[in-house]
Design brief:
Blueprint (H helix, E strand, L loop, with lengths): L1 H18 L6 E2 L1 H18 L4 H19 L7 E4 L12 E4 L5 E8 L8 H10 L17 H29 L6 E8 L6 H13 L9 H8 L11 E6 L28
């Protein structure tokens, strides 16, 4: 618990000045900071079960900081959760360029917590037979194999779930204010790797799985029971932030892309 409190204190020292200044670079920035403070209060009152809420708010703050300092967005207006659809869902950030174009950004934390149990190991042994025939996903039981595979499997499912949700949200927003959208996935670098997002992004953009995508067969099968992807998102971003770091790794440029060769995004 103390390590969480120490991390919160570090985040406050690094990020608070940006979001409580008199001149807000992000409209609604003070409200975003207030929501982080509320998440901290929930953690203090309820303990470890509320840590995820704190992490999600910090990730939003880090993305907001990158938007503020992105040279490509100089002159653009940035809003946090503006109401575009009366009484409807909101995007985390809405950008309006100097030329009047609207860009929506949705931020989702993907942090599976698969336990390293015998039951999860049995699930791995069952599921590995359903992976793409030309691929082998090899993990060692004694070295958190059940956790590693389970987290990777769950992360891929989360990519699809959040993508479908964001597509629907963009479809509704385009009826009121047409624009493009980027979906940013946040993680620590342990539960899923950037290559996992690259595999998913390739399938999303082309409609075909990469030959070396281990989850291709399983995803193809699961998509038979789901709604057809709209493929209306402009791209994906990745924010990789270890839990002991108040900011993301590297310089964290914000990248918009329309082709798989440019996959990366925030925190690559």
């Amino acid at each position: 618990m103390q390590e969480v409190r120490d991390h919160i204190a570090l985040v406050i020292s690094v990020l608070k000045p940006i979001f409580v200044s008199d001149v807000e670079r992000i409209s609604g920035g003070k409200r975003l900071w207030s929501q982080f403070e509320q998440a901290v209060i929930s953690f203090e009152n309820n303990g470890r079960p509320q840590v995820k809420g704190v992490i999600e708010r910090i990730n939003e703050l880090v993305v907001a900081k990158r938007l503020i300092h992105d040279a490509q967005l100089t002159g653009a207006s940035i809003e946090y959760e503006p109401e575009i659809i009366p009484g409807g869902q909101k995007f985390d950030f809405v950008l309006k360029s100097t030329s009047g174009e609207t860009n929506y950004i949705e931020v989702k934390t993907v942090q599976p917590t698969t336990d390293d149990s015998e039951d999860k190991w049995r699930q791995y042994q069952q599921r590995k037979d359903n992976l793409s025939p030309q691929n082998r996903y090899i993990v060692c039981k004694e070295l958190m194999g059940a956790t590693i595979f389970g987290n990777s499997f769950s992360a891929r499912s989360s990519f699809m779930k959040y993508t479908i949700e964001t597509e629907a949200k963009l479809n509704e927003h385009n009826k009121f204010r047409p624009g493009t959208a980027i979906l940013v996935f946040c993680g620590t670098g342990f539960e899923w790797d950037i290559s996992d997002l690259e595999d998913f992004a390739h399938f999303y953009r082309t409609g075909q799985h990469r030959f070396d995508d281990p989850f291709a067969t399983m995803e193809h099968h699961s998509m038979k029971t789901k709604a057809e992807l709209l493929r209306n998102l402009d791209g994906f971003g990745a924010l990789i932030r270890p839990h002991d770091a108040p900011l993301c790794q590297g310089s964290c440029p914000l990248v918009y892309f329309s082709s798989i060769s440019q996959v990366g995004g925030i925190g690559r």
